[in-house]
Structure formats: C-alpha cells, structure tokens
Amino acid sequence: MTLFPTTYRTLAPSDDDPRDQVARDALAAYLAEHDPLDSVDLTFPERTWARIGAVAGADIWLITWPAGSSTGWHDHGSASGAFVTLTGQLTEYVWTGVATASTLAEQTVREFDGSHIHDVVNHGTRTAVSLHAYAPSLAAMTRYELVRGRLQVTSVEQRGEAW
C-alpha cells in the first residue's frame, strides 16, 4: 500500500506540536511495510478497534466503521495523533465550543493535538476503515456528552480498562 507520501490529502495540519509529525510519520512508516486491509473483516456488524503495533514512537490502531457507527465525543488524553481513512468515508465533528464537521474521504489524513475533542461517524452505506497513530502512547480517553449545547465529561477511560 502506498498512501504515503505521494497520494494523501491532509486536513488541518498542525505545525504547533512536533508529536503531530511523529504520529504522521508513524502512519507513513507503518503503511510502507504493511497492508492493514489484509486482516480486516468488512462484514463484521460492529465497530472494531485494535492496537496493531508501535512505530517511530507512536501507537498504531486500526478501526473498522460499519455504516452508522461512531465514536461518540471524546479526546485522547495528552496524546496527539493522526489518522488516515483507508477505505470508505468518515465525518469528523470537532468541538471548539461549537461542533464543526469535515468529510474525510479515502486517503485523507487528519492530524490533531492533545486538546482535540471530536466525534467520528460513518454516515456512509459501506464499512470504512481507518488507521490511527498516537504519540505519546494512548493512555487515557475522556468521554463527553452534549447537553444543552455544552460538552460534559461522562467518564475517563484508562488504558487496559476498556481497550
């Protein structure tokens, strides 16, 4: 698979945090050596996520997104990251006091810093697959619920408890 470095589009790159570049470089390094789609079951009816390795100082995760699946509002603790949509299309809702949406078509890379809060949804009719890198290693995620126009913390998940 040769999504990097020649055939990707980047949404909202961040020049502020070198960890963003670490995560993006880790995606490129992983994709240069592996085809993550080889092991994906596109017929499984639920969203799946698995840590599939560590490269260049970042954790690598593979996520499958059946039609209609979503993450819910969350952040990635202190980790910055990047992800690329390998197949399908995803919609990312980003919280900055209001929700804004971006469409992440195939081969679109999204970079983010440690303060990023989002909800990712597959509004499509077929399963999407994405590859994610987090630097430093993903250790915690905060979950949120949208209540009367504001996000409220509902839980904080620690590595090993729920994933």
From TrEMBL:
<keyword id="KW-0223">Dioxygenase</keyword>
<dbReference type="GO" id="GO:0051213">
    <property type="term" value="F:dioxygenase activity"/>
</dbReference>
<keyword id="KW-0560">Oxidoreductase</keyword>
<dbReference type="Pfam" id="PF05995">
    <property type="entry name" value="CDO_I"/>
</dbReference>
<protein>
    <submittedName>
        <fullName>Cysteine dioxygenase</fullName>
    </submittedName>
</protein>
<dbReference type="InterPro" id="IPR011051">
    <property type="entry name" value="RmlC_Cupin_sf"/>
</dbReference>
<keyword id="KW-0479">Metal-binding</keyword>
<dbReference type="InterPro" id="IPR014710">
    <property type="entry name" value="RmlC-like_jellyroll"/>
</dbReference>
<keyword id="KW-0408">Iron</keyword>
<dbReference type="InterPro" id="IPR010300">
    <property type="entry name" value="CDO_1"/>
</dbReference>
<comment type="similarity">
    <text>Belongs to the cysteine dioxygenase family.</text>
</comment>
